[in-house]
Amino acid sequence: MSELDKKIVEYQTLTKQLELIIAQKAQYMTKQEELKIAQEEVKNLPSDAKVYRLLGGFLVEVDRAQAEKNIASELSDVTARLESIEKQEKRLSDKLTDMRTEIENMVRRQGGA
């Protein structure tokens, strides 16, 4: 296998990894939006409203302050994970751009030889 073939295979592998990262990012963005909506909904409830949490397929009543704390904590975790994924996406995207340029240069050199 030539050096160019190896680079192309590596490029394809990294492209697939980027696709997976983008899909994962979309999932976390959706989760983040859901948590923001839940946070706002709980905040806007009347003070005497009951709050429930889904646990193992059952709705269980929880303390409102605890529910707000749980949502804020989960939102913080999801946001941190999303930031990490975005950094991975940027690094991989930059690497793919560099590899694309390198492959194009290799092809030009082979074509000119």
Query: What does the largest sheet look like?
Result: 2 strands, antiparallel
Which bin fits the share of residues in helices?
Answer: over 70%
Tell me the number of structural domains. 1
CATH class: Mainly Alpha
Tag the structure with descriptive keywords.
113 residues; mainly alpha; Helix Hairpins; two-stranded antiparallel ribbon; 2 helices; 2 strands; 9% strand; rod-shaped
Walk me through this protein's architecture.
The protein is mostly helical and 113 residues long. α1 (3-43) runs antiparallel to α2. It has a two-stranded antiparallel sheet. β1 and β2 (58-62) form a beta hairpin. The mean pLDDT is 94. The relative contact order is 0.16. It has two helices and two strands. The protein is rod-shaped. The chain has one domain: Helix Hairpins.
Could you write a compact summary of the structure shown?
The protein contains two helices and two strands, in the order H-E-E-H. By secondary structure, it is mainly alpha-helical. The chain has one domain (3-95): Helix Hairpins (Orthogonal Bundle), CATH 1.10.287.
Helices, strands, pairings?
Layout: H1 3-43, E1 51-55, E2 58-62, H2 64-112
Antiparallel strand pairs: 1-2
